[in-house]
Predict the structure.
Amino acid sequence: MSLEYTLFNSDMKKDYTILVPSMLPIHFRLLTPVFAKSGYKLEVLTNEGEQVREEGLAHVHNDTCYPALLVIGQMIDALKSGKYDMNHVACAITQTAGGCRASNYLSLLRKALAMEGWQHIPCLSANANGLEKGSSVEFTMPLILRILYGALYGDALMWLSNQVKPYELEKGATDKAVNQFIDELIPMFEHGSYKQSKRIYKKMLEMFKSIPQDRSQTKIRIGIVGEIYMKYSPLGNQHLEDYLIEEGFEPVLSGVMDFALYCVENSIIDYEYYHMHEKNHYI
């Protein structure tokens, strides 16, 4: 099995469909238009089922963490579906430069593709740490700002949905509001601004407040915590949010921006620790 692989370059993005594993159902629906404005054609995968886990087990060592197994299994299962031009498809995955899967997913994915004889399918790394410079997403300032606003709006929609859906009088009204708002939100990414975001948040709050609700009894709030993929991904947690709502609870999740701020703060601490010890000749 050859471990040689094809690098993704900027000339490819106009012709290639880039597959992205699912994780955040609301947030990731904003990824496609956000990256489209920078010339990337993204498709967020929605395939689920036992076959995804089986493909993961067949291509990833079973001692590797469960999220890695699911993400890579979903990619392989999608590529075997026959939906894609195998000469114009790529896979994208995030890397945080941390330990475990945060940095190693890309190598595992390339190895899985090689097992199927698909070394020609390029893999992109989405990271802000200078990893995989030869095959990474080019993060320009306009793209970074769109991603930032997308994360903020996605967090707000996720929180409002989970706060309203358990109390809705008309089943499906909250999902309908989420879909409608995302459709209205997509064109606004061209000129994101703080002033515009204030108007968007106000409209978002008004829309969800207008949904008829029965608040005669307060639901027990259940926090969903843990590893970031398993916490957010319906594929990973077997649609835990929907299950809790159906059982009469109100699910609560922290926002993606909380995780992003944690990563930034961690990098600052690492930087300060390194330079403090360097100054004192400890390293």
Observations:
- The chain has two domains: 10-135, 140-215.
- Residues 141 and 223 are 34 Å apart (CA to CA).
- The two ends are 41 Å apart (CA to CA).
- The longest helix spans residues 141-164.
